[in-house]
Amino acid sequence: PNIQLADGQLAANFFQHIPYFEGFIAERNLDLIWTAKVHIEPMGGYPGKAKTLEELGEGDQIGIPNDVTNGGRALMLLEKAGLIKLKDGVGVDATVLDIVENPKNLKIVELNAEILPRSLEDLDLAVINGNFAIQAGFSPLDDALFLEDGDSAYVNIFAIRKEDRDDPALKKIAEILTGAEVKQFILDNYAGGVLPVN
Length: 198
Fold this sequence. Notes:
- The chain is an alpha+beta fold.
- It contains seven helices and eleven strands.
- It is globular.
- 35% of the residues are buried.
């Protein structure tokens, strides 16, 4: 869809989060921008053997996805939850090697994202993508100990060609996507697996 957008086959697209978008357009030198943050499919920290963050003890095991994109995302979320500290500036590219503070000496266990929900019985906590959490029967809003919010880099965006930034129709679509009606629709229909960011 980004290539089709750049080629003029599409007027806009809405399917991707910011890190994917920025990497894609940089790699292919595309003249695209995003104009609205719409929703996030939140990654969250789900209880395993530890039922609360306070129950996490010395050397406890925390599962995170083993792919680069989601691994960095999970580590950033663990940092935001106050469990670890990452090297300054690593952001979405963080790896376990970038952990500079780990007061409880938590053991980070990297697993395939889709098996993390099934691994909770062996882990003290796992950071799980929203789609896999929902497939496993979790409600992100009710079951996660902590969740990503609209401050996350992984917000899904409305993208257009840079030259079309003043197009009134595209501005109107962005306004609708971030408006109260769409926000309510998301809240009513996605059980916390998708959250509006506005």
